[in-house]
Amino acid sequence: MEENVSFSVIGGSGLYSMPGLNDVKELDLSTPFGKPSSPLILGTLEGRRIAFLARHGLGHHISPTDVNYRANIFALKMIGTKQIVSISACGSLKEEYAPGHIVFPDQLFDFTHLRPHSFFGKGLVAHISAADPFCSEWTDLVRESVKKTGAHVHSGGTLITIEGPRFSTKAESNTFRMWGFSIIGMTASPEAFLAREAEMCYTTMAHVTDYDVWHTSMEPVTVDLVIRTLNQNTRVAQEGIRNLALSFKERISCSCQNALSSAFITDPEAIDPNTKEKLILLVKKYL
Question: 7-283 belongs to which homologous superfamily?
Fold first, then answer.
């Protein structure tokens, strides 16, 4: 069911409401891991076919913990996605990363504990390399596309993913700062790791909405503050996506799209047939 998609975008449900997106259609898919958060919206922008997925569902009704990350990534794999742009809100843990800025982190710290983190297990074990969880080549391309909008963009830094849905305490926020983290969010894990297991390039366009709760001279993070800043940045995200469509390269010479080549540890004779069948989309070129 491949759709000749150039790249896919995971973010808010309003991202695809942009001028110039033509030939729009909706795909309501099911995966071996259940339904994705929302139907996929496919459209053509600047001659490129792009898919959009609302991470928290249409109308934002799914909590970060309850997002079906495996179904979301699997559904994008089903339509032939090779590159993903994640667009999300984040809090800043550094003075220089101000609200309204955009950060492209290069490292990820997983501080979640209630989410399924892998497609594998129960009869087929795989250990992917996640030393560099964001594809550097894909990140460079997306970051340069966003820079063309005139937005204030930062390169690098560590994103910590907390479980949520609550915001941090001041003690937690200050601890994360002492640990050297740059930004804080609730959705990059396990999304980035599942994308790697599905052999897709993944990057995060993190929109700074607040200073979390550590900055004593600024208002603590609230839902209203997050929504206000995200609404202001929607135009930047849409223009960045348009620029990306214009500069998109079909081939990226990274290792993401062969991430499973040396990941399997289960003896082929011991692989559970049902698990293999469930994951055949991911493993067919190796098993």
Answer: Nucleoside phosphorylase domain (3.40.50.1580)
